[in-house]
Amino acid sequence: MATTIYHNPRCSKSRNALALLEERGVEFEVIKYLEDPPSTKELQRVVGLLGIKPAELVRRGEKVFKELGLAEQELTDKQWIAVLVEHPVLIERPIVVHDGRAAIGRPIDNIEAILTD
């Protein structure tokens, strides 16, 4: 059973999620998604596991969101994925994929839930 965390070391929530995985003794792979952005296919898979629309994964408070005028645009799921691949800073974090399920660690209880179920 593979576990992956999409991690931003500068984010306290992401660091907390990493610590939770370590505390629980879970073996995991760390993907620093700002340095190694996910591919279109990978991001589509993660969004599918999360059970959300790509637009729900967008960090709307980021400077680049405003600079690109994304609030004024109506994008398709495919277009949102392309934006997230091109601008990974817009991807909500942390994301943990575990045993065929995924969760955004806001709150961290979301991650706890996929580890225990």
The total count of strands amounts to 4
N- and C-termini, Cα separation: 14 Å
The shape is globular
- Summed over residues and divided by their number, the pLDDT gives a mean of 96
Helix/strand/pairing class, anyone? alpha+beta
CATH architecture: 3-Layer(aba) Sandwich
Percent of residues in helices comes to 25-40%
Task: Write down the CATH topology.
Answer: Glutaredoxin
Question: What's the CATH H-level superfamily name?
Answer: Glutaredoxin
The whole-angstrom Rg is 14 Å
- For the report, how would you describe the main beta sheet? 4 strands, mixed
Q: Order of strands in the sheet with the most strands?
A: 2-1-3-4
Give the helix tally.
Answer: 5
CATH class: Alpha Beta
Strand content: 5-15%
Enzyme class: oxidoreductase
GO molecular function, one term: arsenate reductase (glutaredoxin) activity
Protein name: Arsenate reductase
Organism: Posidoniimonas polymericola
Description:
With 117 residues, this protein is an alpha+beta fold. The protein has a single domain (3-116), classed as Glutaredoxin (3-Layer(aba) Sandwich). 39% of the residues lie in helices and 13% in strands. The protein has helices at 12-23, 40-50, 63-67, 77-86, 109-116; strands spanning 3-6, 29-31, 95-98, 101-104. The protein is globular, with a radius of gyration of 14 Å. The two termini are 14 Å apart. Belongs to the ArsC family. It is an enzyme of class 1 (oxidoreductase). Keywords: Oxidoreductase. This is Arsenate reductase.
